[in-house]
Design brief:
Layout lengths: L4 E4 L14 H9 L3 E5 L8 H6 L3 E3 L12 E3 L19
Parallel strand pairs: 1-2, 1-4, 2-3
Length: 93
């Protein structure tokens, strides 16, 4: 069975630097068998190198809309209400 892939979005909002994942939590997820992609981000409180040093795969900023549908997209901030809506959703039952 392939590992579950998590994809941390790069997010921007004035005066906002929070991150849904920390490098420490990312390391724990990797140790449990998850694959973690982290978008490069100039705004996030943690530097790209902090995620890279714990083993996360650094990916291009803004790449989440093109991530495979089986990747779980992680973020904190609201998404823009665009048409078409950029978040793909699927249900497997």
């Amino acid at each position: 069975m392939a590992p579950v892939t998590l994809h941390l979005r790069s997010e921007t909002k004035p005066l906002e630097h929070r991150s849904a994942l920390t490098p420490t939590v990312t390391r724990k997820l990797l140790d449990k068998g998850f694959k973690v992609n982290v978008e490069r981000s100039p705004e996030r409180i943690f530097g790209d190198e902090e995620f890279g040093s714990v083993g996360a795969t650094l990916v291009e900023e803004g790449s989440w809309p093109n991530a495979p549908e089986d990747h779980i997209i992680i973020g904190l901030k609201e998404l823009e209400n665009k048409d078409p809506f950029p978040l793909k959703a699927s249900f497997k039952g």
